[in-house]
Amino acid sequence: MIWPKNLSNKVKHNVNLAGLTSFKIGGPARYFFAPADVLELSQALSCAQKARLHIFVLGSGSNILISDQGVSGLVISLNRQSFKKISHQGSCIIAGSGLKLSQLVSYAASRALGGAEFLAGIPGSVGGSLIGNAGAWGYSIGSLVEQLGVMDYCGKIRVLSAKQLKFGYRQSNLSKYIIIWVKLKLFSADKQTVARQIKKYLAIRKTTQNSRLPSAGCIFKNPPEDSAGRLIDQCGLKGKVKGQAAVCSKHANFILNTKGARFGDVLALMNLMRKKVKVKFKVNLEPEIKIWK
Ligand SMILES: Cc1cc2nc3c(=O)[nH]c(=O)nc-3n(C[C@H](O)[C@H](O)[C@H](O)COP(=O)(O)OP(=O)(O)OC[C@H]3O[C@@H](n4cnc5c(N)ncnc54)[C@H](O)[C@@H]3O)c2cc1C
């Protein structure tokens, strides 16, 4: 693979991905690149496209399960400073896609801007959260979006307005794009009320998801009008173990990596969860996590 001269020393080979995910599972990326800016990103994309490399975009790695063999394409990480900027114009926040949601939430709270509190405790980046329309407590990030800066996989930049975007439950119409930045519409609020709300959400998370073990959050999407966790729990699967992976005993829709779990351990548990729920409730569970292989 021949990269443009200015990138050839910057594109790394065989970079282990497990440590870059919250699950701590997965093999290496054949090529790994963290562009310094949009120009480098666009150069790498057009080069990878010409070589027909599969391109994977990595955010905070909190919603992915990666094969033990790793991935044979190019993994792009938007964790450099130019993708993590944040500013505000009135009650709107403009945030880079590589920024962590926790930083976004703190920024909004410190400027007395309300509307993003529900994102507190979700361990993702802005970009990853927009792709999957992350949310909690009945709210999701898509409903806050006013404008989106994206790059297509050929390296072309576009600005999309809210009207061009479609967000549904843990989904969006953004799979053709790499998210670069977003403009979110918040509202002026009382600083202490915002802080109290964030504290409340974090406290609930602590009691319902309290595990220090690696995971990728909810494995399956909730079926309409129901909770995947409830169905899995009703199948008696809390605490069920395959290899070094276990169904969380606090929240049945979480799989925990108890120590050195393999990709196959998690898949085996996922298959079991799907099968049992299908047999008992005639419900097909759909994965929420993204699987890279
Ligand atoms: C303990 C725990 C609790 C969680 N709680 C919640 C919750 O309450 N609600 C919720 O919705 N989720 C939750 N999650 C899941 C996860 O944090 C969210 O889905 C988060 O939004 C994923 O963002 P990320 O940056 O980690 O994405 P990644 O895992 O890195 O990537 C996820 C997907 O987004 C794509 N992607 C990432 N960045 C970009 C980009 N810039 N442009 C284009 N594509 C991109 C990736 O290619 C991949 O397909 C939880 C996870 C954990 C571990």
Task: Throw out a few tags for this protein.
293 residues, alpha+beta, Uridine Diphospho-n-acetylenolpyruvylglucosamine Reductase, domain 2, Uridine Diphospho-n-acetylenolpyruvylglucosamine Reductase, domain 3, Uridine Diphospho-n-acetylenolpyruvylglucosamine Reductase, domain 1, 3 domains, 5-stranded antiparallel β-sheet, 4-stranded mixed β-sheet, 6 helices, 20 strands, 27% strand, binds flavin-adenine dinucleotide
Brief overview:
The protein is 25% helix and 27% strand. By secondary structure, the protein is of the alpha+beta class. The strands form seven sheets. A five-stranded antiparallel sheet has the order 6-7-15-11-12. A four-stranded mixed sheet has the order 1-2-5-3, with helices on one face. A three-stranded antiparallel sheet has the order 17-18-19.
Question: Can you walk through the features of this model?
Answer:
This protein is an alpha+beta fold and about 290 residues long. Helix content is about 25%, strand content about 25%. The protein contains 6 helices and 20 strands. The radius of gyration is 19 Å and the shape is globular. The relative contact order is 0.13. Bound molecules: flavin-adenine dinucleotide (FAD).
Total domains: 3
The distinct ligands, each listed once, are: flavin-adenine dinucleotide
Distance from first to last alpha carbon:
20 Å
Biggest sheet character: 5 strands, antiparallel
How much helical structure, as a percent, in the residues?
A: 10-25%
- CATH classification class of the largest domain: Alpha Beta
CATH architecture descriptor text of the largest domain: 2-Layer Sandwich
Stretches where pLDDT falls below 50 for ≥5 residues?
A: none
Average pLDDT score: 97
> What is the number of beta strands?
20
Indicate the structural class.
alpha+beta
String of helices and strands: EEHEEEEEHEHEEEEEEEEHHEEEHE
Strand order of the largest sheet: 6-7-15-11-12
Any idea of the CATH topology of the largest domain?
Uridine Diphospho-n-acetylenolpyruvylglucosamine Reductase, domain 3
- Rg, rounded, reads 19 Å
**Overall outline:** globular
Number of helices: 6
